[in-house]
Write a structure and sequence with these properties.
Blueprint: H1 2-58, E1 66-68, H2 69-74, E2 95-97, E3 102-104
């Protein structure tokens, strides 16, 4: 009788460990998916702003190697932009560096 009780306890521990392992794998996978999604959102945002700054320069409405968001707002190339992840508006002093083709957030 004591032996069958030990086997039952062992089965319960094994089931618990299997469920725990599956839960850990699922949580890690979800975390990776969320991080990758946020990185893609940032990439899309920065590419949009970069392309808009380049368009502003081509149309001779903006000049220089550093095009601020304020320039783009003033010339009506962009509406007020915000970070899609944090839901905060970008500082108007944030800029696009046309030499490195990067959007620098201030």
């Amino acid at each position: 009788m004591n032996l069958s009780k030990n086997i039952t306890i062992n089965k319960k521990v094994c089931y618990f460990l299997i469920v725990l392992l599956i839960t850990i794998i699922i949580l890690v996978s979800i975390g990776k998916v969320i991080i990758e999604h946020q990185e893609k959102i940032k990439l899309v945002e920065s590419k949009l702003i970069l392309e808009t700054a380049q368009k502003c320069v081509v149309n001779n409405d903006c000049h220089g190697d550093k095009i601020t968001l304020k320039m783009l707002y003033d010339n009506k190339y962009l509406d007020k932009e915000y970070n899609k992840i944090t839901k905060e508006y970008y500082n108007e002093n944030s800029y696009v560096d046309l030499k490195t083709k990067k959007f620098i957030v201030k």
